[in-house]
Write a structure and sequence with these properties.
- By secondary structure, the protein is an alpha+beta fold.
- It has eleven helices and ten strands.
- The relative contact order is 0.10.
- β2 (about 145-150) and β3 form a beta hairpin.
- The strands form three sheets. Strands 1-4-5-8 form a four-stranded mixed sheet.
- It folds into three domains: about 5-120, Butyryl-Coa Dehydrogenase, subunit A, domain 1 (Orthogonal Bundle); about 125-235, Beta Barrel (Butyryl-CoA Dehydrogenase, subunit A, domain 2), CATH 2.40.110; about 240-395, Up-down Bundle (Butyryl-CoA Dehydrogenase, subunit A, domain 3).
- Bound molecules: flavin-adenine dinucleotide.
- Flavin-adenine dinucleotide binds near residues 95 and 380.
């Protein structure tokens, strides 16, 4: 297993780092104050990066992406993760990134032309509507939303929430039950729904710890009230929704983990800067206190260990496939989310009251990433998957 970086990849990562400095970080304060007001500048930055060939890194070059392998994308993703807007500006943010991968692999030619191609070019935005307020999201085989077949159409009815980026999105991929009598894993299908279809109602942006966000940086409640779409809008076979969701979320979890490592590195950087600058009394800084030094050492070790684990998992996906790396994907999902939470919390603590203000990016990171231990499967569900695997030989 080698994680060495080729000279070409090193040059690319250096270029990406330079763009973070010159294009992304300067927009951060504006985006933190108001994503809505920052949007024109963010879109301009996206256009600039697309013209320079630094766009949609995980998509094939023929479609306008960068054609990176999974491990290469993982490395780039960590750099982008250092800013809350990095992935959006480089057009590889969730949920667009996962939706692109899904459509690339399972979309029909017509779906690719209408939905995937403009998404990769950054001309439209998408969302993924699976979780429902009335059903445990931890059990994705148990959904209320129905897609009933009427002639050549599906009629979709149901309520979804936590549809990330649903606000002002152009299309949604909706998980809906197409056959309630089928076995649980074969009941639902994924269906493409244009957000201007009659019956699609954007109910609200759900405030997250007091912040309702805007556009891509928000999570929506959406009502589907007898929304009609042609049967050709179904992705893959009828009843394949659950399997496709597993496939979509597997690589997506690596994307999240690498982004979290980027956030963790930024938090540790801010922690160290504050520790050496803040004096407890004249000439005596926080960095001299043993507790703070231990937090720094623990954060360094945890981030480095997490990175190697994520690389090993991405490498396995590149060499085999996401299904073979299922247990590793579950392990890194809860492990890296835990590391992130600890490092963010230490950084906030070291900043004292300043840490919970919006004068640094820490509060933004915390507000939006406390969910890391919940979305794409809560910790407990992933730990159960890993424990099942570890226990298997003992139970024979
Ligand atoms: C920031 C954010 C963004 C999201 N984006 C999207 C999106 O774009 N699209 C979408 O469809 N959904 C999205 N979600 C929803 C997310 O996928 C669900 O929140 C998640 O699957 C958990 O479902 P739930 O919230 O219904 O919690 P529940 O299923 O009600 O679970 C509640 C808690 O119970 C515990 N628990 C659950 N199962 C077990 C178990 N087997 N053993 C022990 N304890 C258990 C866990 O602690 C869990 O946190 C997002 C969520 C967040 C927070």
């Amino acid at each position: 297993m080698s994680f060495a970086v080729s000279p070409e990849m090193r040059a690319l990562l250096d270029r990406v780092e330079e763009k973070m400095e010159s294009v992304v970080y300067p927009l951060e304060d504006l985006a933190r104050a108001s994503f809505e007001r920052a949007l024109p500048a963010l879109l301009e930055a996206r256009t600039k990066l697309r013209e320079e060939g630094l766009f949609a890194p995980h998509m094939p070059k023929e479609l306008g992406g960068m054609g990176l392998s999974f491990l290469e994308h993982a490395r780039m993703s960590e750099i982008l993760g250092r800013s809350p807007i990095g992935h959006f500006v480089f057009n590889c943010a969730a949920p667009d990134a996962g939706n692109m991968e899904l459509l690339l692999k399972h979309g029909s030619e017509a779906q690719k032309a209408r939905f995937l191609a403009p998404l990769v070019r950054g001309e439209i935005r998408s969302c993924f509507s699976m979780t429902e307020p009335e059903r445990a999201g931890s059990n994705p085989t148990w959904l209320e939303t129905r897609a009933e077949r009427e002639g050549d159409e599906y009629v979709i009815t149901g309520r979804k929430w936590f549809t990330t980026a649903g606000h002002l999105a152009d299309f949604a991929i909706v998980m809906a039950v197409t056959d309630p009598d089928a076995p649980p894993h074969r009941r639902a299908s994924m269906i493409l729904v244009p957000c201007d279809a009659p019956g699609f109602t954007h109910v609200r942006r759900i405030p997250i710890m007091g912040d309702e966000g805007y556009g891509w940086a928000s999570h929506s409640e959406i009502l589907y009230d007898h929304v009609r779409v042609p049967v050709e809008n179904r992705i893959g076979a009828e009843g394949a929704g659950f399997l496709l969701a597993q496939e979509r979320l597997g690589p997506g979890r690596i994307h999240h983990c690498m982004r979290w490592l980027g956030i963790g590195e930024r938090c540790l950087d801010l922690l160290c800067k504050r520790a050496v600058a803040r004096e407890l009394s004249p000439g005596r800084t926080l960095a001299e206190e043993q507790t703070i030094r231990h937090w720094i050492a623990e954060s360094r070790a945890e981030l480095d260990a997490a990175r190697l684990y994520v690389y090993a998992t991405a490498d396995k996906i590149d060499r085999e496939d996401a299904a073979s790396a299922r247990v590793e994907i579950s392990s890194i999902k809860f492990y890296v989310a835990g590391v992130l939470q600890r490092v963010m919390d230490r950084a906030i603590q070291v900043h004292g009251a300043l840490g919970i203000t919006d004068d640094t990016p820490l509060a933004w990171f915390y507000r939006h990433e406390r969910g890391a231990r919940i979305y794409d499967g809560p910790d407990e569900v992933h730990k159960d998957t890993v424990a099942k695997h570890v226990l298997r030989p003992y139970l024979r």
